[in-house]
Amino acid sequence: MPEILLIEDDKTLAKNLVRYLQTEGYTVHTADGQKKGLQLFGTYHPDCVLLDVSLSDGNGFSVCSAIRQSSDVPVIFLTASADENCTVAGFEMGADDYISKPFRPRELIARIQNVLRRHTSATKLLRCQNVIIDPSRGVVLKNENEIFLSALEYRLLLIFFTNVGKLLTREQLADELWTFSGEFVGDNTLNVYMKRLRDKIEDDPQNPSILKTVRGMGYKAVQS
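^ that's the sequence the OP posted. Answer follows.
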C-alpha cells in the first residue's frame, strides 16, 4: 500500500485530503509545517510527497530542496498560486508535478498514480527497435546517439514505450498528456506532437515503423 506524506497548513483541506486518500487505499502521514514535514519524511520514507508551497514555518520550496539532497521520491506541489514563476521555481527545485488549488480529487489521484508509475519505471531502460529511453536520466537515444525531445514529446514517447504492443486510443493519450501538462490536449495538439515525435525517432517519418497508426482506433509502438 503506497504511503503519502501530506505537508499542508490548511487544516480543513488536509483533513479532507486524508479522508479521500485513505478511501483510495493510501496510507497518509500529515504535517502542517516544514520542520515536522521533514521529520516525518525521515521517519516514514513515503512513496510520494504532496507539498504545499506556503507553510506555517518556512515554505515548500525549502522542503523540496532538502528532500532532493537525499531522495528522488516523487514530489507534487499543491498551491493556490497560478503564477508561472512559482510553477517554474517548483520544477527547478526538483518537483515531479504541480497542481493548483482548487483541484478535483480524481485529478489529484491521477497525478499521484502517474508520478508513482514514472518513478517505478525509472529504474530500467525502455527499448523499442533502435530507440532507448533511460528514465533515470530523462535521456532518449537513437542508434546510441542522444536525441532531444520537449517535455510533452518525452512524456508521449514514455507512454508508448511502457505499453509496447498495446493499442492506445487517442482519448487515452490525450488524457495522459492533459494530466501531465495541466492543459487540455485536443486532437489537433495530439496530431502535432505525434508528427514531431515521429520526425525525431523514425528513420522514415512518412512510413513509421515504431509508432504505428491503427486506423480509426489509435496508435501502438511495435518492436518490429
